[in-house]
Request: fold
Amino acid sequence: MTGKGQNVTTPIAVIGMACRYPGARDLKQFWENILAKRQEFRRIPDVRLPLSEYHDPNPNALDKTYCDRAAFIDGFQFDWVGKRIPKSTFEASDIVHWLALEVALQAIVNAGYAKGKDFSYFEFTAPAMDKGKRFLKLSDEMWMYLPEIEKSTKIAGHMLRQSMMGSDFSYDDFIENRKLQDIYDIKLLGIDTALNKSCFKLELTAKVPDVNYYTRTVWVDTIAYLPIRAEYYAKSGKLMKEITIGDFQKFGSRNFPTKIKMVNKLRQNTYTELTLKNIKIDVEIPAKIFTKTYLERK
Reply:
């Protein structure tokens, strides 16, 4: 800061960061694009600007643009319902306003001032060989603590696709928390039967590059409107995993599945079943739980 005839230095502390750029929905993708020297400029699509009507290579042409390439932020949708924004307010404001608010909220999460689906912690108490192993999820990052080496390790890159503790779930399966409509185009294929129930059969096709599975087929109960079965496919069309979700029980005002079975089709004669026996809702959890200091406690 510069005043009259003097320089004033004001220290600041950066405690949280977030961004949304063309081809990058978060900081991780932003830096990956920089390191890979990716360029997101492309020919302007007609949905943005019909070049046949507005483009002219002559820079001096009136009411025309000689630009025909640009970089765009695609796929942004603001959850005004989940954030309790009145519909009239949402519709009366420019989308740039909501984009700025969403990035600001992500910065708050990055700084460590949010929990919910962004933070989670779990610890193994049995069997003996796994006792004391702990996991901490911070937004889209996962950290693992191993008592035998007394330090935590960040699980990243190709490790996220590996089996979690020898199960049929990958680490990616656990940390993915984006809404399906934000990362997939969804098409209703019709009515089908799954687990002896009438279901809507949906086909999900990836619309962003950084997804765990390129396509998914999901069966949703036509009465309860809850997903009960899904198949996960690679881009090649190869079936990778099957998951069944059942034994829904009401805890408070919410329905939760208490049994989730994952079958990895790339392995033989194996499956993993997750059983939830006790769920508590709206419990106050100390903020220190969601820190690396707590994760690495002796």
The longest strand covers residues 239-251. Helices lie at 27-36, 51-54, 87-92, 95-111, 171-175, 180-183, 292-295. The chain has seven helices and 15 strands. The longest helix spans residues 95-111.
